[in-house]
Task: inverse folding
């Protein structure tokens, strides 16, 4: 088995390789003068079970193209099996037609990864579980919940907790976390989004008064969803609001928005390489999911159970 990294999240790839006590494949993913991507693998991978680590985060198109070209290079170098390890799967939110004459880009990206030559995919907290079905190759969707639950127990376990889903679509994810937190009660924010990047809280379902609210979501992008929801929860009498989000997309002025928000703390994972602004923020803390991904990789290579990681 071998681990190869493209450029989007080298620290995570190195940490996964460190967990597995092996070096990264000696390879170079670089640009020609006109920005074309070129990949060169400097060691033999013939007959190997290779895992390529690449989040398709900002700049999404460049990082996706790097992943596709790495897969192509591995296929042409006769790797036995190629697994695309995509801790953050960009384009996942385009998983259905929101209106007439619009694309389903998540499906197109799934087709591209498959056509490039991937045999398997390993992702983390896909925006919607159904995206697994966009691939006609085996796709494992890992959950960040165990990593988050351990941190919540350690930091906030002695408080009167309430798990909150910031929108109706996230209820399954929130319920799974609540179950891990000794069946903590659940509240739901009824969010409306008329335009991308703008959201409005309509109602809060559940009594959050005097509760320490733990909001869980897959993505923080502009930060609008979380910051608006945090303020509404406090307006309803919540004692505090902390957010645990798997993918810190944090685009535009999101870090500043979080810094100025009513959130007590925002905890993200390293599925996307954190920017300096995110690392410097007093309100943002980063948990690593390298051991989780490393263990899943080990189990896939050994052909043992991945789902039992979440029992
Ligand atoms: C949407 O359904 C996702 O789960 C997130 O809630 C959303 O992408 C967050 O976006 P933003 O931070 O821009 O409000």
Result:
């Amino acid at each position: 088995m071998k681990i190869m990294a493209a450029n989007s999240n080298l620290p995570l790839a190195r940490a996964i390789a460190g967990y597995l006590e092996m070096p990264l494949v000696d390879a170079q993913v670089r640009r020609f003068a006109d920005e074309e991507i070129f990949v060169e693998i400097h060691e033999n991978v013939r007959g190997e079970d290779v895992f390529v680590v690449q989040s398709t985060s900002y700049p999404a198109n460049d990082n996706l193209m790097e992943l596709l070209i790495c897969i192509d290079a591995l296929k042409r170098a006769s790797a036995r099996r190629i697994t695309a390890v995509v801790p953050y799967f960009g384009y996942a939110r385009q998983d259905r037609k929101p209106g007439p004459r619009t694309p389903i880009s998540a499906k197109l990206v799934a087709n591209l990864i498959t056509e490039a030559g991937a045999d398997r995919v390993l992702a983390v907290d896909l925006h919607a579980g159904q995206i697994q079905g966009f691939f006609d190759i085996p796709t494992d969707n890992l959950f960040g919940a165990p990593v988050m639950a351990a941190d919540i127990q350690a930091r906030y376990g002695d408080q009167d907790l309430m798990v909150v889903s910031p929108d109706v679509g996230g209820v399954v994810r929130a319920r799974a976390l609540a179950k891990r937190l000794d069946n903590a009660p659940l509240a739901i924010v009824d969010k409306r989004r008329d335009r991308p990047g703008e959201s409005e809280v309509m109602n809060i379902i559940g009594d959050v008064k005097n509760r320490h609210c733990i909001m869980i979501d897959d993505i923080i992008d502009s930060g609008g969803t979380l910051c608006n929801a945090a303020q509404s929860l406090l307006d309803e009498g919540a004692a505090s609001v902390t957010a645990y989000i798997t993918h810190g997309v944090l685009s535009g002025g999101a870090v500043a928005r979080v810094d100025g928000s009513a959130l007590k703390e925002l905890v993200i994972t390293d599925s996307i390489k954190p920017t300096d602004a995110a690392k410097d923020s007093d309100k943002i803390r980063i948990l690593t999911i390298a051991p989780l991904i490393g263990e899943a990789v080990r189990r896939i290579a050994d052909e043992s159970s991945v789902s039992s990681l979440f029992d």
About this structure: DSSP finds nine helices and 14 strands in the chain.
